[in-house]
Amino acid sequence: MTTGTRAALALPHRALLHSTPAEFARAAVPYLAEGVGAGEVAVVIAGPDATELIHEGLGAAAHGVEFIAAAGWFTTPVAALASYDERARQDWWPRGRLRLLAEPVWAGRSALEVREWLRHEALLNVALAGSPTTLLCAYDAADLPPALLAHAARTHPELVDEDGIRPSHGYVEPADFYAECNAEPLAPPPITAARRIFGAGELPGLRAFLTREAARHGLPAADTLPFVLAVNEVATMVIRDGGGHGALWVWAADGELVADVTDPNRGMPDRFLGQLPPRPPHQADAAMWAVRRLCHIVEVRSNSMGTRVRLHLRLPA
């Protein structure tokens, strides 16, 4: 790909680093007012404080902005990306260029969740590349840890502060950032995990085993079917496309029901596997996209010794 082509496909994806509500308003309000004035589709996905500041700053122009609550949008990384894709294709892009302001939710996230949301920020540069979209992500520098702010500079090609828009010299290409997220190996399942071997013709028994384990660990009935379907899909891929047999471990930890599915005979390439809205004819991507949408978080680690897919679902508090 030539430099000119990359520039044409690049997403204007900026991190707004602010330390006070006034700093946020001085950047966010003109950004949105410019979009409304240009007839763009202006959308804000933010918490109540940021939403109130934008309403106050825009005045009557706020009627030209769609406001979405961040808490309901940023539930899981794949759910958020699916919502971006679906709303943009069905509603926003048909009406014109999209101007988004998003305030990701970081409070209360575990270390695993933070890593996956950072991965999400990097993947937006791929998922929305070449689309009629400008995206500004707000980061409260007074409240967020320095390490997270440093990663904002690594996942956004441009930064916005009191001095305006500038290139992010710390920016890392999405594929490289993605690989960094997968660099740490998964810890083995605990010795107390329930284990089952499976192969061709054994999926009905595997599903029954999963249903029993879900009930034993207190997963609500409404969440059991998504859990069983997700694990069954991964096991099907192992049987159909992998070594023909695998192993499953199930346990509960840190408020989650966790399942490991391993294929000891095949390394599964994980370049954004199932992380982006699938486009035909990529069957494996479509299957893993469905699996990720059914779960809270899905981790994949693969090497010459095989592949491990770890699926997380939240348990009731």
From TrEMBL:
Keywords of the record: Kinase, Transferase
Pfam families in alphabetical order: MEDS
Domain called MEDS: residue spans: 13-157
Highest taxon listed in the record's lineage: Bacteria
Gene3D superfamilies listed in its UniProt record: Histidine kinase-like ATPase, C-terminal domain (3.30.565.10)
Listed GO MF terms: kinase activity
InterPro entries for this protein: HATPase_C_sf, MEDS_domain, RsbA-like_anti_sig
Alphabetized NCBIfam families for the sequence: RsbA_anti_sig
Name recorded for this polypeptide: Sensor histidine kinase
Organism of origin: Actinomadura parmotrematis
